[in-house]
Amino acid sequence: MSESKVIVAAVDLHKGSRLVTTRALETAGEGGTVHVICVSEPNIANVKPPEDIDAPELTGVDTHKLKDLLDARVAEYKKGHTGAAMPKVELHIDAGDPAERIVELAARVDADAIVVSSHGRTGIRRLIIGSVAEKVVRLAGCSVIVVREKKHEKA
After folding, report:
1. SS3 readout for the chain
2. Is 44's pLDDT higher than 70?
3. Between residues 98 and 84, which one has the greater pLDDT?
4. Which residue ranges form the domains of the chain, and what is each CATH number?
5. Predicted TM-score (pTM) of this structure
6. How many Å apart are CA 26 and CA 53, to the nearest integer?
7. For residues 136 and 94, what is the distance between their CA atoms, to the nearest angstrom?
8. If I label 73, which of 26, 30, 84, 153 is the partner at 20 to 30 A Cα–Cα?
9. What Å distances lie between residue 149 and 15, 19, 62, 120, 152, CA to CA?
10. Long-range contacts for 14-19 (Cβ within 8 Å, ≥24 apart)?
């Protein structure tokens, strides 16, 4: 039995989110806890009063897609770990600077590690968009596991 851990898994519903969630479940171990967080910048272009704005309008996060992703990853993990104590999974949706919110959650739950994905952006796209993973590595008070899909360049 592996040691149980508290893990923060940062997802954004892009391709790498599947790998992040799977790695977080594996890292948490039997009886561990995975805090899945999806952060987006607030959509403040609404003309509605704040009390009339739904959470998806405020954060830009599709909670149904997020829950579907988690359900699928947990079900797949269960298939490969029959009889093992499943990690507990908690969902957090937030708005603001993604890296800052991810690191704040990790501190609040006393995480052992944060799992994020890298989109592999380079050049001008990276300069304009920035790198959440890079900022998380700089700000985090715990280990950060950066995952990405395997794609080796041929020599």
Report:
1. CCCCCEEEEEECCCCHHHHHHHHHHHHHCCCCEEEEEEEECCCCCCCCCHHHCCHHHHHCCCHHHHHHHHHHHHHHHHHHCCCCCCCEEEEEEEECCHHHHHHHHHHHCCCCEEEEECCCCCHHHHHHHCCHHHHHHHHCCCEEEEECCCCCCCC
2. no
3. 98
4. 6-145 (3.40.50.620)
5. 0.80
6. 36
7. 16
8. 153
9. 9, 8, 23, 10, 10
10. 14/117, 14/119, 15/117, 15/149, 16/117, 16/118, 16/119, 16/147, 16/148, 16/149, 17/69, 17/117, 18/69, 18/73, 19/117, 19/147, 19/148, 19/149
Length of the chain: 155
Q: What is the pLDDT of residues 104-140, one digit of tens each?
A: 999 999 999 999 988 655 555 444 445 888 899 999 9
Tell me the pLDDT band of 57, cut-offs 50, 70 and 90: very low
Burial 51-71 (b: 16+ CB within 10 A, else e): eebeeeebbebeeeebeebbe
**Alpha-carbon span 56 to 52, nearest angstrom:** 12
pLDDT for 59:
52
